[in-house]
Amino acid sequence: MNSDIKTLEELFLKILHLYTVIGRKPKDYGTGDLLYLTEVHTIIMVGKNEELNMTKLAEMMGVTKGAISQTVRKLTAKNLIVKLKNTSNNKEFNLKLTEKGRIVYSKQEAYNAGIFSFAESLYMKAKPQDREIVKQLFIQVIQNMQGRVRA
Fold it and tell me: What is the pLDDT of residues 50-89, one digit of tens each?
């Protein structure tokens, strides 16, 4: 294996490991609830997407509807998300953040902005074709990983 590819692989695995470590530690975002990263990611997706139902949320997050149902059940029990009847389809529910959910959403968005601010300046200095290569690399990694999750 090419040494540059090997280095990229090692760096990527280190990022995954750190993300896993972060995901294992629940955090309070000012609501009194300890939330795991999966729960926070769900809140972010619901906050960014109006008229979002369970099926769309599962697709967007690359997980099963059963997994999303479990997470949404926990978040509704913590009064962070509400399920509202879909007016055009009585069998579906749309998800919406509660006031508490919006607090978590805002705090996580601010946290993410801080984490990725260093990358933004580096990314903006790159040539457009280099930015496209990075974007395509991320897309390919995501698609590869989603294929493995579904397998």
Answer: 879 999 999 999 888 999 999 999 999 999 999 998 888 7
Query: Quick check: is 56 in a domain?
Result: yes
Residue 49 sits in a domain whose CATH number is 1.10.10.10
pTM of this prediction?
A: 0.79
| Cβ-contact 39, 31 below 8 angstroms | no
Mean pLDDT calculated for residue range 113-119: 81
DSSP string over the chain: --HHHHHHHHHHHHHHHHHHHHHHS-EE-SSS-EE-HHHHHHHHHHHH-TTEEHHHHHHHHTS-HHHHHHHHHHHHHTTSEEEEE-SS-TT-EEEEE-HHHHHHHHHHHHHHHHHHHHHHHHHHHS-HHHHHHHHHHHHHHHHHHHHHHH-
Q: 83 in a domain, yes or no?
A: yes
